[in-house]
Specification:
The structure is a single chain. Helix content is 73%, strand content 3%. It is built from 15 helices and four strands. A hairpin with a 2-residue loop joins β2 and β3.
Length: 353
């Protein structure tokens, strides 16, 4: 019990033992953090809110890949393509058919989930590197299908303009107004991801990740759970795609590249695979690093004029790649491992020795 609670606290019921928020201090921090978060639009600039919206949308997509790869052990390099599916479903439904936001959100999630099931079917026969190549096919096939055979309804390589969200007569156009749509959904999706991995389904995912044969011997339907993991991962991508469509307001296949899929995996690695908190840490860390790099590259370009184009276009990928490589070498368990070390020392206080 000492490892599960700070010193001096103990559980009196199974419900307390399984609770996510366990002490009064944690409740105070959670409520205070949420109040501060939702008060940000009052005093934060549009630029800061734009970055926070980008972080929240990315977080939803990374939660999906973390459930699939971090918990179930199935590698995917096509998450950005499934985000594109959700985005274009929303764009078509809202701009051409006049669907409401909630209808678009539901259709995007389910539509991306079904597409994810199709590309998850090879997981019954292949795994590891070969499965990664199979999911990589989605990253090449889906944008091409969007841009060419479906160009009549998607706009092809021309941008598909998306109408803003309208709920109860209120139109959400600005970064501040979109903040109150994107952030609550990101919080809810994070809560769902955290609880999912604590259920029987989550334990089945972990069993498949750790030893597929042992999981099958224990009676787990490996193929069914693999497909379920692909479906949930793609549903998250669909939700992220729906929010992306409303956020950027104009869709183009070039918005959903292979590089985005790789960065999603990189964020999961940096944060810590198989950890919901790790997904949060990884996204916040690398998105913040991206903004710092953009500001730094613009400043350095004014000093080193000859190298200006290189610094503005190539500095961010170099920094990203270097950070991911360093984490893989020196801290493969990610930032989440540092968080666990901190929590362990906090819980043992004042007996840290």
């Amino acid at each position: 019990m000492a490892l599960n609670r700070p010193c001096g606290y103990y559980d009196e019921s199974y419900g307390q033992d399984m609770a996510i928020v366990r002490t009064r201090l944690q409740w105070v921090i959670l409520i205070g953090g949420l109040v501060l978060l939702f008060a940000l639009p009052i005093f934060a600039s549009g630029r800061i809110l734009s970055v926070l919206n980008a972080i929240a949308i990315t977080l939803i997509a990374v939660h999906g890949i973390n459930i699939l790869t971090g918990y179930c052990g199935q590698i995917s390099l096509g998450q950005s393509a499934f985000v594109a599916v959700g985005a274009y479903i929303t764009g078509i439904l809202t701009s051409k058919l006049g669907f409401s936001f909630w209808a678009c959100l539901t259709c995007s999630a389910l539509g991306a989930g079904l597409v994810g099931l199709i590309f998850g079917l090879p997981s019954v026969r292949i795994k590891g590197f070969y499965l990664a190549m199979s999911t990589l096919a989605a990253q090449f096939i889906i944008p091409v299908v969007i841009a060419n055979p479906l160009s009549g309804i998607t706009g092809g390589w021309d941008s598909l303009v998306v109408k803003p969200i309208e709920i109860g007569g209120v139109v959400f156009r600005t970064q501040a107004s979109m903040f109150y749509i994107i952030i609550p959904l990101a919080v809810l999706m994070t809560f769902f991801a955290k609880n999912l991995v604590r259920t029987g389904t989550g334990r089945a995912f972990i069993a498949i990740r750790d030893n597929e044969l042992a999981a099958e011997v224990q009676g787990i339907n490996v193929f069914a759970y693999k497909l379920l993991a692909f479906f949930i991962c793609s549903v998250y991508a669909g939700v992220a795609g729906c929010l992306t469509a409303y956020w950027i307001k104009a869709l183009n296949p070039t918005n959903f590249t292979l590089m985005n899929s790789i960065w999603y995996v990189g964020m999961m690695i940096v944060g810590g695979m198989g950890s919901t908190a790790g997904a949060v840490f990884g996204v916040v860390f690398l998105r913040t690093l991206e903004e710092i790099t953009k500001i730094s590259s613009s400043y350095l370009a004014t000093i080193f004029v000859t190298w200006g184009p290189f610094l503005q276009g190539g500095l961010s990928p170099i920094v990203y790649g270097l950070v991911i490589t360093l984490f893989l070498i020196f801290e493969p368990r990610g930032i989440a491992h540092w968080w666990e070390i901190f929590k362990a020392s906090y819980r043992l206080t004042p007996f840290a020795y």
